[in-house]
Design goal:
CATH topology: TIM Barrel
Protein name: Uroporphyrinogen decarboxylase
Structural class: alpha/beta
Subcellular location: Cytoplasm
Number of domains: 1
Family: Belongs to the uroporphyrinogen decarboxylase family.
Strand order of the largest sheet: 1-4-5-6-7-8-9
Shape: globular
Function: Catalyzes the decarboxylation of four acetate groups of uroporphyrinogen-III to yield coproporphyrinogen-III.
Bound molecules: coproporphyrinogen III
GO molecular function, one term: uroporphyrinogen decarboxylase activity
Helix content: 40-55%
Length: 355
């Protein structure tokens, strides 16, 4: 890609030449870039303070708060990218689904989607439904300067699980019952979710996000053949829909060791890996032409500094032969993590990988 092909937003802000976007494009980097899933949130006292008395979903609709919360970990940890503060259920709320995020539980849906008639709840998402997102990203891009902003959305399978189960689920039994029991209804549901997700990512990219991550957090519950048949077409539709913007597309899930190849095939530029598969092995499973993101176990941050650094060293060593590596945790920052441990980890990775 020549300089003239730089996506317009990245050209204006200078983010194009950031270590994060270079690593996503599998170009040489001055140091391994680092960011953390859930870097904004309860691990930070300054987050708990600004969120006091404000419900999670309400905070997601206030551009001033979203901007402040998104910037907090960037100021504190010197991470190489910001991630837009929101939640995967925000676009569903925006099209009128009756849902809430219950503290300590997660998203809870009032009228779960289980029949064809229920599909009517899922109308198309228009940019005007999420004007607060456009506004917040405009503010953020100005504040962030050359630090890239990652936009994100939930993937069709993970969203479907919340919508069908009505809340968080360990076994996804109603979800799988629908997937196996009524393949046509399942396909139609995932297709609608793909359109909503794609529209939501487009809003974020057009407002100035320089990369996007699709969170398919719970897809590791599926066997590869079922993923390929019943889920991959919808996720691939999302990636295709945003391909022409030229911004890196990251694809992440938990417990996806057996799915890594297919998740890359679905259309990602960067495949997120949890801590269960070392990155050199993950690279073999994903194949050439893609960068990897990960993959320190978030629980390791609770161990003494030396143990964290040993683990970080192992991740960097496993990533040494990769085409591109974005350092991250294997899943989100746990709420009781000591923020100092995160700051030190960023410093350590930057130092150890400086070239
Ligand atoms: C599965 C999922 C959800 N939400 C998300 C996912 C995919 C990522 C993953 O696998 O962790 C995505 C998400 N949710 C949130 C972000 C913020 C951006 C960032 O990474 O910093 C992101 C990327 C904020 C949030 N989303 C939520 C919080 C906590 C609510 C609060 O602070 O009051 C935050 C900071 C709520 C939420 N929302 C969800 C859960 C499971 C929870 C936790 C419930 C709880 O333990 O209280 C659904």
């Amino acid at each position: 890609m020549s300089a003239n092909d730089e996506p317009a937003g990245q050209q204006q802000t200078g983010t194009y030449h950031s270590a994060f976007l270079k690593a996503c494009r599998r170009e040489p980097v001055p140091h391994t870039p680092v960011w953390f899933m859930r870097q904004a949130g309860r691990s930070l006292p300054e987050y708990r303070k600004v969120r006091e008395g404000i419900a999670m979903l309400d905070s997601c609709m206030r551009p001033d708060l979203v901007t402040e919360i998104t910037l907090q970990p960037v100021r504190r940890h010197n991470v190489d990218a910001a991630i837009y503060f929101s939640d995967i259920v925000v676009p569903l709320k925006a099209i009128g689904i009756d849902l809430d995020i219950k503290p300590g539980i997660g998203p809870v849906v009032e009228n779960p989607i289980r029949t064809r008639a229920d599909l009517e709840q899922l109308r198309a998402l228009e940019p005007g439904d999420v004007s607060y997102v456009t506004e917040a990203i405009g503010m953020l891009v100005r504040e962030l300067g050359s630090t890239p902003l990652i936009g994100f959305a939930g993937a069709p399978f993970t969203l479907a699980s919340y919508l069908i189960e009505g809340g968080p689920s360990r076994n996804h039994e109603r979800t799988k019952a629908l997937m196996y029991g009524d393949p046509q209804l399942w396909a139609d549901l995932l297709d609608r979710l793909a359109d909503i997700t794609a529209a939501f990512l487009k809003v974020q990219i057009e407002a100035g996000a320089s990369a996007v991550q699709l969170f398919d957090s719970w897809v590791g519950a599926l066997a590869p053949a079922d993923y390929r048949r019943s889920v991959m077409p919808a996720s691939a539709k999302v990636f295709r829909a945003v391909e022409d913007y030229g911004v890196p597309r990251i694809h992440f899930g938990v417990g996806t060791g057996e799915l890594l190849g297919l998740m890359g095939e679905a259309g990602a530029d960067v495949v997120g890996v949890d801590w269960r598969v070392p990155l050199d092995e993950a690279a073999r499973r994903v194949g050439p032409g893609k960068a990897l993101q990960g993959n320190i176990d978030p629980a390791v941050l609770f161990a003494p500094r030396e143990a964290v650094e040993t683990k970080a060293r192992e991740v960097l060593d496993a990533a040494a032969g990769l085409e591109g590596h974005v350092f991250n945790l294997g899943h989100g920052v746990l709420p009781n993590t000591d923020p100092e441990a995160l700051t030190r980890l960023v410093e350590y990775v930057h130092e150890q990988s400086a070239r």
